[in-house]
Amino acid sequence: MALFCRAAYLLLKPSRPVAACISAAARQYSSGGQYDYIIVEKRGEKQNVGFIQLNRPKALNALCDGLMSEVGQALDDFEADGGVGAIVITGSDRAFAAGADIKEMQNRTFQECYGGNFLSHWNRVSTVKKPVIAAVNGFALGGGCELAMMCDIIYAGEKAQFGQPEILLGTIPGAGGTQRLTRAVGKSLAMEMVLTGDKINAQEAKQSGLVSKICPVDQLVLEAIKCGEKIASNSKLVSAMAKEAVNAAYELTLAEGNRLEKRLFHSTFATEDRKEGMSAFVEKRQASFKDK
Ligand code: CAA
Fold it and tell me: Domain with 43 in it: what CATH number?
């Protein structure tokens, strides 16, 4: 707690440059060293929501290698932290992220990309067991849209714009855009976006099922944290099972998916939290989950 008070103090202290303060605040949480491109904190009344803010404003949060490695490190830390039950990833009001870093990619060769399996470390976002919420204000383009889609829930600010403009750069989405966008919004809209590079706004994203909620720009992060708090108040163990089951809908046939769901449902009966949840209902009291 003292660390976070100090972080807040550093952020508010007027004589320090904001970026330096943010860096200091970010360093408070990390167990694994310093963060240069992201701010990492715990948020929520019970400090049970992990918060990652992409912080490369001059480049509109372009997702350079270093930034995505730091996101992976922060996710590892939150995954290992028993006090954290959900994670929020956000950017700035202007940009969630304007894509992979084009300047960093510009001179890469095929051999480097193929040999080094370029962008494969981004997958960490989609393998986290704890639920992850993307809070998207401004641009979510290319890799930025793909990063949001790797998360489990997307909330959008009223001015958000989503797009896969890689075609305009002579390439195609490389971090799941063609796959996750198609599953989220359907073939026709996904094709149109991927083939023209056109963006869609928050309302279109909501209508098409890409995002679940639209919020005023200045309320977006608060709303995402609130959602994270709700999730974190449930059993972390059972939340992970629920997440696994929903994600399986993207990978398995209906019969296979239903079978997996049934097995996971049965498995909840091996947990103390399932007993607690049902006992609390019958006894007309609030459940107190222990993640066991
Ligand atoms: N990579 C590197 N730098 C970027 C960037 C990116 N993806 N997007 C923006 N920037 C930089 C700009 O170069 C500029 O920096 P300088 O001031 O040093 O020139 C700064 O951010 C501000 O950008 P703009 O001046 O262009 O701002 P704008 O308001 O006029 O336009 C924008 C905003 C429409 C988002 C425009 O910046 C843009 O089109 N960005 C590129 C979007 C894009 O093509 N994304 C896909 C990248 S490829 C990819 O992501 C592959 C994948 O699948 C993983």
Answer: 3.90.226.10
